[in-house]
Amino acid sequence: MTAAVQNTGVDLTSLTPQKNATKSETSASEDRFLKLLVTQLKNQDPLNPMDNAQMTTQLAQISTVSGIEKLNGTLQSLAASFGATQALQATSMLGQGVLIPGSGLTLQGGSAVGGVMLSGPADKVIVSIADANGVLLQKVDIGPHPAGVANFTWDGGTAQGTAAAGRYTFSVAAARGDATVETAPLAYGRVTAVAPSATGASVTVGDLGTVALGDVKQIVR
After folding, report:
1. What is the largest CA-CA distance in the chain?
2. Would you kindly state where each structural domain of the chain is located, as residue ranges?
3. Whose CA, among 6, 103, 147, 190, lies 20 to 30 Å from 74?
4. What is the pLDDT of residue 26?
5. Sign of the four-CA dihedral 67, 68, 69, 71
């Protein structure tokens, strides 16, 4: 398993918890408290000794603080382990086409792939494609779709002929009957790298940039 991780360029060393040779702040506080408590017991007035309930309360407070620190340490270890596991799982996406939030469209080889996130079912979904200057080139009706992710392919066709290979933008309008359905455009790209972190894995999608694994809305094969 280790060799497979190294071949994909995933470095998990950053997620390994490092031991600290010095005492934690809580441990130092415990030491100071115990020293003060012992000193107080040694110097207490025999005729007016410390209240047992008060001492028990103080000990319980220190115990609670110590327990919280240990719990935090456990949660951090679990988060690191989760990030490493998620990164290993995400390596299977290397080289795969995915849809992530974005409105870019790349026409190459007579084909461009894009997608849309629909907040609800739609009877009609219209994709409007524009050039880098915002000039409308084509409107494509991709038909009715249920709620969720829908992808589409543009062949580069326009009212003036066939568009040249390059980068374009698009927007989406959807409706169900007379009601508008909220949409969010999704850009297509291929996963070129996977990186682990304490908060989960992230993926690099070509020149679209790096996004959290949770931002990948669909794998397009």
Report:
1. 103
2. 23-93, 97-187
3. 6
4. 59
5. positive
**Distance from C-alpha of 22 to C-alpha of 94, rounded to nearest angstrom:** 41
pTM of the prediction?
A: 0.62
Per-residue pLDDT of 131-190, as tens digits, reads 989 999 999 999 999 999 999 999 999 988 999 999 999 999 999 999 999 999 999 999
pLDDT in tens, 18-68: 444 445 565 666 677 677 767 766 776 666 665 666 666 766 666 676 667
How far apart CA 202 and CA 215 sit, in angstroms, is: 9
Tell me the C-alpha distance between 24 and 30, whole Å: 10
Q: How many CB atoms lie under 10 A from the CB of residue 4?
A: 10
Pairing of strands 210-212, 179-181: unpaired
Across 52-84, b (16+ Cβ under 10 Å) vs e yields: eeeeeeeeeeeeeeeeebeeeeeeeeeebebbb
CATH 2.60.40.4070 for domain 97-187, yes or no, is yes
Q: Amino acid identity, residue 79?
A: A
123 three-class SS: coil
Give CA torsion, residues 108, 190, 119, 175, to 10 deg. 10
Cα 191 to Cα 90: distance, rounded to the nearest angstrom? 10
